[in-house]
Design goal:
About 40% of the residues are buried. This protein folds into two domains: about 200 residues, 2-enoyl-CoA Hydratase, Chain A, domain 1 (Alpha-Beta Complex), CATH 3.90.226; about 50 residues. The strands form two sheets. Strands 1-2-3-4-6-8-11 form a seven-stranded mixed beta sheet, with helices on both faces. By secondary structure, it is of the alpha/beta class. It contains eleven helices and eleven strands. The protein is globular. The longest helix is centred in the last third of the chain and has 17 residues. GO terms for molecular function: isomerase activity; lyase activity. InterPro entries: ClpP/crotonase-like_dom_sf (IPR029045), Enoyl-CoA_hyd/isom_CS (IPR018376), Enoyl-CoA_hydra/iso (IPR001753), Enoyl-CoA_hydra_C (IPR014748). This is Enoyl-CoA hydratase/isomerase family protein.
C-alpha cells in the first residue's frame, strides 16, 4: 500500500482501491487533495495492471465536499474567487468522468456537495444503508460548481434534481436507490465485500471494450442517431481488431470462458 498525506491507494488483482483519508475533516476536499487525487488517477489510468477503479472514504463520511476551513481562509485574505479550488475540482471531475476503465464509488457514509459529485462521476455507485446524500450548495447560498447540475438531471430527472438542489434535503440511501441516484444499497459491514465482487467481475471483462463503450456513452448525447451509429461502427472495428476480440471469438468456437487481457 502506498500512502499520501490525504489518500491511500492499493492495486490488487487488477482493482485499484483509492481511499480518501482525511477522516477528521470528513474527507473534505482541499486543493492538495484534489491535485493529489487527479495525479493518482492519471497514473492509474495509464497503468495496464489496473482494470477497475474503486473510490471510497475512511471513517464515517464518504466525502463532505469542499474544505470549508480552506474556503474561509481564502475569503479572509480576499482570495475566494481566485484561490483555485473550483478549477482544481473541475479538472478532477473531468478526469474521473473520462477515466478509461470502469469506476465504482463505494459510498461508506455521507456524501455532500463535491463529495456527492465525485460519486456521480463514477460508473457505478454502491452505498451503505447508513449513507446519506446532500447537495449542500443552496444551503450555503451557492449554485452547483462540481458537476451536479449536469449529472443529476440525467440520472434522476429534472424535477427530482431540482428538489435535491433547491431544497437541499438530506436523502437516505433507500431514497437514493429508489430514485436512481445509486445502483445498490448494502449493509454497512458488507460494503467492501459487495464492492469487491462487482469490481472482480468488471476486472475479468474486456476492459478495452468497456473503454470504447464509456466513450460512446459520454459523447452520444451530443450526436444524432446516424452520427452515433457511425461512431459505434468505428468503435466496433477497434474492438474486433483487439486481442480481446480475437480471444472472444476463439472462446465461443471452443465453447469455453474467454480470458480477457484488456487490449
Amino acid at each position: 500500500m502506498t500512502t499520501q498525506a490525504t489518500l491511500l491507494s492499493q492495486v490488487e488483482a487488477g482493482i485499484a482501491w483509492i481511499t480518501l483519508n482525511r477522516p477528521q475533516q470528513r474527507n473534505a476536499l482541499d486543493i492538495p487533495t484534489l491535485k493529489a487525487l487527479h495525479a493518482l488517477l492519471d497514473k492509474l489510468n495509464a497503468d495496464p495492471a489496473v482494470r477497475v477503479l474503486v473510490l471510497t472514504g475512511n471513517g464515517k463520511s464518504f466525502c463532505a465536499g469542499a474544505d470549508l476551513a480552506e474556503w474561509a481562509e481564502a475569503e479572509a485574505r480576499g482570495a475566494l474567487e481566485s484561490y483555485g479550488w473550483t478549477e482544481a475540482a473541475h479538472a478532477l471531475m473531468s478526469r474521473l468522468h473520462s477515466f478509461d476503465k470502469p469506476t465504482i464509488a463505494a459510498i461508506n457514509g455521507t456524501a455532500v456537495g463535491a463529495g456527492m459529485d465525485l460519486a456521480l462521476c463514477c460508473d457505478f455507485r454502491l452505498a451503505t444503508q447508513s449513507a446519506r446524500f446532500k447537495a449542500g450548495y443552496t444551503g450555503m447560498a451557492y449554485s452547483p460548481d462540481a458537476g451536479a447540475s449536469w449529472h443529476l438531471p440525467r440520472l434522476i430527472g429534472s424535477e427530482q434534481a431540482k428538489r435535491l438542489l433547491f431544497l437541499d434535503e438530506l436523502w437516505s440511501a433507500e431514497r437514493a436507490l429508489a430514485i436512481g441516484l445509486v445502483g445498490e444499497v448494502c449493509a454497512d459491514q458488507q460494503l467492501l465485500e459487495v464492492t469487491g465482487e462487482l469490481a472482480a467481475r468488471l476486472a475479468s471483462g474486456p476492459t478495452f471494450a468497456f473503454a470504447q463503450t464509456k466513450q460512446l456513452m459520454r459523447e452520444g448525447a451530443q450526436r444524432s442517431l446516424p452520427e452515433q451509429l457511425s461512431a459505434e461502427l468505428a468503435a466496433g472495428l477497434l474492438c474486433g481488431r483487439s486481442e480481446d476480440g480475437a480471444e472472444a471469438l476463439r472462446a465461443a468456437v471452443e465453447k469455453r470462458t474467454p480470458h480477457f487481457i484488456g487490449r
